[in-house]
Structures are given as structure tokens and as C-alpha cells.
Write a structure and sequence with these properties.
The structure is a homotetramer of 212-residue chains.
Chain A (H helix, E strand, L loop, with lengths): L2 H19 L9 E7 L4 E4 L15 E3 L25 H11 L3 E5 L2 H9 L5 E5 L16 E7 L5 H14 L5 E4 L3 E6 L2 H21 L1
Parallel strand pairs in A: 6-7
Antiparallel strand pairs in A: 1-2, 1-4, 2-3, 4-8, 5-6, 7-8
């Protein structure tokens, strides 16, 4: 494994544990990834079914653009079953390709879950006028209107990845996407920016949710 | 004491402290258990009246299927009274036998407490359509409908254990049970799965509670 | 200083820091005390104006029944002003004498503050039917009805202590008292029991508050 | 760098991390400053765009009254871009001059954000009757009425600083100011007092917000 991968794996773990403490990755929900190489694509990603509060760097997997695992993680998850990449890996690859993102974070918070359902028929949640929006990449004023599109949830991952791809093309300025009754996808040029976007969007969804 | 018991006791303590931090085991409420042996049944369980934020492995008790303490814990609780198994031990044994569970966790969260009363007349809480449900053992789609039965609370533990046994038989697919104005019982094949179920169900109850 | 005082001071600090983390002692609000000796009365108590998240054992004061400081704490608070006992010391002494308590804890939580005002005209908050009530000393069933009397707030401490004394006599079974728009007073035979009562009552007030 | 600056930088970091944990400085929002020298004015301030949960003392900047950076911080933020003072530095300097404050803290909490919008047309939020108010400098009774003026948000920092200056003159007794849909500014004679004011005001805004 390259030094870069080891370093990224360690950052993913530290971030995942912090987000688990905040209650945004409970019950093995959610997943995080970061680009290790672009050509060919190599993505470090959290394994399927891992407790994010107990995650270790040795559990982080390296996948290619077809979501095939390249490395074999040194430490196994429970029951000695070898770790497999998150089922939602195709969504991560989709975001990385569509947005040129360097990192993708998918959280399951209570407020994101509620709002993704309450606003489903409108097709998205509009957030406007908050200073906190300025922390999103490329936004320079609180007068910005952020539209977070909502996609219907599905267990057909290739179909879901396809829908996500279309939505990302339809809303080229969107910094995030909600899956209905499921959670938030956001991303950034690197893991630090993706983390910033998670904190900003979860904050804003809580503010919007408490006012509804 | 066997190595297994020592290891399980340590895991119970670590888990109990984490759940106490989240506010789900305040005021010595709640209890946790894990199977050490099946034949004859040996269950490691938290003692009655322990502060879960200060719990130590030496306080964990080993009981048989009649809830009689096998070991004598090395460290005593306050006032040097020898620790006795949780009063709700019969409920733990009931779940272990009825479900073949390897671990049982009983939490007292604010949202579980509220919903167990608000939905008491309906006999349970239905949770449907959330991706988070997929983390429950054997559930493969968010379209799953989880029915969490609600049992009237009682201080007659044998009677309560009996009612719980009947409810578990009546709802063979249920992953949990609520005691009215009291809290949540859930379980898993091992402690890791039981922890996952607690996090998932407490998350979902909060989401449902905030929308009501 | 006696070994007992040093040990109690250390326990008060550890407990105060934990309650500050939960948000129940923000902004130097609240105070804690524990009996060191009964005859004559010696009470270890947190100093006035201390940040409970930064409290150290050297800041804990020892007072007599007239709230006069016996020891001089080794470490000074900000600006090298010698620490003085909490302004609310007379309320602590009142509880210790009226109830024979070994420890008194006064917290300022958001829910206690809100309910102490919402229910002020009724003179108290009734909490009934919750299993969590069983953790209060001497309560053996969830069918217990706990009446938490509410006292009008005042800056006249001797008068407030007098009113508290009357209310404690009027409700000999009460485990706590609310000061209107101010916070919760509870107590126990020792610090461990007082901590248990705080966690139970803050939990119940949150549950009641969220249902209102 | 003087010993004083090093000490103040370390205190700013410790405080910023704690407030980030509480969710009041998410997504690189908010900023903190403390006076190092009065004549000429030297202010230690957090850099623009820093993750407050990962802040280090080496990132803290020293600015003059024109918000020009005096030192060059030893450690760079992401991408090796040299740290620059917070864009809102003029607001900090304004508060320091208008109030003679020794420290200024600007937080972004969910409740402050909501209330700053809900009460915008009234021009401020009135908080009255809470014991917690007594923790504000110079307030000796809960009967105090605190008026927190609300200023419209703007990206024109000199204009915003000017408006803030006028509002501070108009309300000489105010301990804080809200920027609409943005967050809270408060201050104190030193960092300890500013921290106390943050905790008190965030507590009170949450209490007021939950009752609305």
C-alpha cells in the first residue's frame, strides 16, 4: 500500500469516528471515500457494514472505478468475513467522476432523513439566505440559494447511480444530494472540504427542520 | 472466570459507557447482557443499580437461566453491598431463549419513552420506508415495515417476562420491543449486532418522534 | 485538609465537569455540595462564579452551617480574587438539614428552565407513570407520582432558603425542587445518589417538555 | 512572538475546539479573538476558513487595528496557502474599541441562527426573567431584561462594522449582537468572560427558541 493510501485511510477513520459521535453515522450507516489516484481511478472507501465508531485504518478498502477491491484489508470485520466495499460504492464513483470530487461523504442524520421525505414531492430542499452557505465551495454570499435535489431511494445500485448521475448533470451547481428517507451525499475537492460541506449542510438541514 | 467472560465483561462495560454518554442509560437505568455459554445457559449481565457511566468489568455478573448469580464480582457497588443481577434479568433470559440471541440491550431514551406511551393504544409503533431499517438483521430493503410491539409496564418481573415471551412468539420477525413509559429492548446474534440494532432503532424512534 | 475532604472535592470536580459537558451547568451556573462532617456541619461546595468545565479540586471550599468558608482554597479563581462560596450556599445547607442529605446538586438545564416557568402557576410539575421514577430513592414502582414543587425565584438568599425550607416541609416526599426560570435542586444520601437523581429528573423533565 | 501571544493563542484553540464540539462553530464558521496589546492594538484572531475542531495555536494570527496580519503563522492551512485573518476581523476590532472588550467570540448555533431571523422585524430578541442572565457582566438580578439587537447580514465588511458600531452605541448595555441568519457576537473583559457569555446566551437562545 502506498503512503498516500495509508494516510488517507487514517484520515477517513478519524473523520468517520467524529461523525459517528455526532450521531450522523449510527448503526453502520453511511460511508466515506477519498481519491487515491485519478488515472486509473483508485478510491479509498469504508467497508460495508462497519461500525464507524470502531473503524480502523486496516479496514479501509481500495477500489477501482468498477468498485472492485484492489487491496485486501489486513484486519477483517466481525466473523472474519473479508471486508467488502460499501454497497453504495457506485454512488461514490459516480460523484467522483461527475464532479471531479476528491472525497465523498454520505451521512444519515435525523434531520436529513426527515427533510428528505417531507420535501420529496417538491423534488428538493431550497436553502437560502444563511451565512453558513458561504462555506460551500464557490459560494461568496449568504444570498446564495442552494437547491439540494432529492432522489427516490432504491436498492438497485446501478439504477440509483444512474439517477444520481442525471441529477448531478441537471443541477451542476448543487453541492449535495439527498436520498429520500435515507441520507445526505456531499463531496469536496479533498476530504477536508467534504467534511466542511457535511458540517454546513447538516447544520442547515437542522435549522430548516426545526423551523418547519 | 473464563477468558471469554472477562472479554465479554469488558465489551459490555465499553458499550454501556458509550450508551450512557448518548443519554440512553441515565440514572442507572437500562441493562446489557451477553451469552457466555448456551448449555447450560450462562449470561454476563450488568448489575442492578449501577451507574453505567462508571461501570467496571469487575461489576459484571454471570447468571444462569434462573437468574441466579454464579460468580461473585470482585468489586462491590456503593456501600459494599454485593452486586445483584439486574431486576430485569428474566427479560434478558426470555429474549435469549425465544430468539436465540447472543446479546440483549435495554435502553431508556427520551424518544423511546415518549413513543412507547403515545402509541400504546395501537399496541406498537410501525416504522417503514427508511434506509436505516436495512441495518436490522435479515432486512434487505428500506421498503421493510418494522413493527415494534409495545407491552404495558409492570413491576411483576415473572409476569412481564411471560408477556414478553408471548409477544415475541406473536411477532416472530420483530427486532425489538418497547415497554410502555419505560424503554427499548433489542438484541442480536452477538453484542456487536445488538449495539447496531440499538443505534438503528433509537435513530428511527427519534426521527419518527420529531415528525409526530 | 482531611483525606475525606480531598476525596470529596475530587468527586465534586469530576461530576461537575461531566454535567457541564451535558450542558446542564453552562456559563458558571449551578453548584454542587457534599457533606464532609455532620457535627458540626462541614460542607464541601463549589465556589461562586466558577467555570464548571474547568473546575479543579483546589477550588472547592469547605463551609460551616452559616456558609462561612473554613479553608482557603489553594488555587484562586480568575484575577486572583480568593474564591468565595456559591451565593446559593444557604439553599444547600437548608436541603442538607431538612432532608439529612449527604449531597446537593443544582443544575440549569434548558428543559428544567422552561418547565419551571410553564408550570409555575400550578405550583409544580407532576411526573407519573415512568419507569425512570423507580431510580429515585424509596420509589419502587413506575406508578409513583412525583410532584416537583416550583418556587418563585429571588435574589434574597435568606428569604429563598426560608421558602425552600417551608416547601421541603410541605412536600416531605419530594426528591427535588424547581426554582422558577432558574433550575433544579435535587439531593441524595451521598454524591452518587444525588448524581443519579439529577440524571433521572433531567431525563424526565426533557421527556415531559418534549411532549408538551 | 511574546509569551502572552503564545498563551492567548493556546487558550483560543482550546476554547474553539470545545465550542466546535458543541456544534456552535461547524463548517469553519465563527471566529474568536483576544487582545494581546491595547496601545497599539494587537489582536490574536483565528484565521479565515479554519476547521475549529482541528485548530492549532500555530494558526492563530496577530493583527493590528486595520486588520493587517503582524506575524506569519508557523503552520499553514490546507494547500499551503498562508493563513489570512478572518474576513470578519473588522467586526472584532469594532467590538474591542467600542466596548473595551478583551475578547470577542462569534458563534453560529442553530438556535441563534433561527431566532436571528424569526425576530428580525422586531429588531432584536428580548430575554427577561431568567436566572442565567445573572452570569452576564454587571447583571445582578434575574429581573434584568437583555435586549440582543439584530443586524441585517451583509458581505460588505466595512459597512457591517459601521452598522455594528452604531448599534453598540445605541444599546450601550447590550452584551451581544445577532447578525441575521448568521450568528451571535458576544465579548468580555477577557476570554474567560467571553466564553461565559457565549454559554449563557446560547443557553438562553435555545430556551427561548424551544418555547416559541
Amino acid at each position: 500500500m502506498s503512503d498516500t493510501f495509508v494516510q488517507i485511510a487514517s484520515s477517513l477513520v478519524s473523520l468517520a469516528r467524529g461523525l459517528h459521535t455526532r450521531g450522523w453515522l449510527l448503526g453502520t450507516s453511511g460511508n466515506l471515500s477519498a481519491v487515491v489516484d485519478r488515472e486509473p481511478l483508485r478510491l479509498a472507501i469504508t467497508p460495508s457494514g462497519a461500525d464507524k465508531g470502531e473503524l480502523t485504518a486496516a479496514q479501509i478498502l481500495l477500489i477501482d472505478e468498477d468498485c472492485i477491491s484492489i487491496n485486501e484489508p489486513a484486519v477483517k470485520l466481525n466473523n472474519d468475513v473479508p471486508g467488502k466495499p460499501s454497497d453504495e460504492s457506485p454512488l461514490h464513483v459516480t460523484v467522483v467522476k461527475a464532479r471531479g470530487a476528491g472525497a465523498v461523504i454520505h451521512t444519515h442524520s435525523v434531520w436529513a432523513t426527515i427533510l428528505s421525505d417531507v420535501h420529496a414531492l417538491e423534488g428538493g430542499v431550497a436553502i437560502e439566505g444563511y451565512e453558513m452557505l458561504k462555506g460551500l465551495h464557490g459560494v461568496s454570499t449568504h444570498q446564495h440559494r442552494e437547491w439540494i435535489p432529492i432522489i427516490d431511494n432504491s436498492q438497485d445500485m446501478p439504477a440509483l447511480a444512474n439517477t444520481l448521475n442525471e441529477v448531478l448533470a441537471q443541477y451542476p451547481d448543487a453541492h449535495a444530494c439527498l436520498l429520500r428517507c435515507h441520507g445526505l451525499y456531499t463531496w469536496g475537492r479533498d476530504l477536508q472540504e467534504a467534511k466542511r460541506h457535511v458540517e454546513i449542510l447538516e447544520f442547515l438541514l437542522e435549522a430548516v427542520g426545526r423551523r418547519t
